[in-house]
Design goal:
Blueprint lengths: L12 E4 L2 E4 L5 E4 L5 E4 L9 E6 L19 E7 L6 E8 L9 H4 L6
Antiparallel strand pairs: 1-2, 2-3, 3-4, 5-6, 6-7
Length: 114
């Protein structure tokens, strides 16, 4: 169950496991862990996320293969986090040249319907 937002005076609505919309009309997206405001609720609104990028082995012990054995392009581990508390919101192993498409709600697959 979500609690009322103490900063905005409105109720919080779950958007994704670690995100929620809040405000009088659900106009902002915030981290459910630290209440950091990340952006607006429109599907194309930019979210202010911290992005960590490193070698694919940083994704965990299950990544043991050398990516060069399977793809010609350099591969990186990319993780999107709340800049306030560093809760991981999305993680992927992608080509280094892969365009950042995860900083909008639409690409995170979020809906504000429940």
């Amino acid at each position: 169950m979500l609690k009322p937002s103490t900063r905005s005076g409105g109720m919080a609505e779950r958007v994704k496991s670690s995100l929620h919309s809040r405000g009088r009309a659900g106009t902002v997206v915030a981290c459910r862990h630290c209440a950091e405001i990340l952006g607006g609720t429109a599907a194309d609104a930019e979210l202010a996320l911290a992005i960590h990028e490193g070698p694919s082995t940083e994704a965990g012990p299950q990544i043991i293969a050398n990516p060069a054995d399977y793809v010609d392009a350099p591969v990186v581990f990319r993780q999107y986090c709340c800049p306030g508390c560093w809760t991981a919101l999305y993680s992927a192993v992608v080509p280094a040249s892969h365009v950042d498409t995860m900083t909008t709600l639409g690409r995170l697959g979020a809906t504000t319907g429940g």
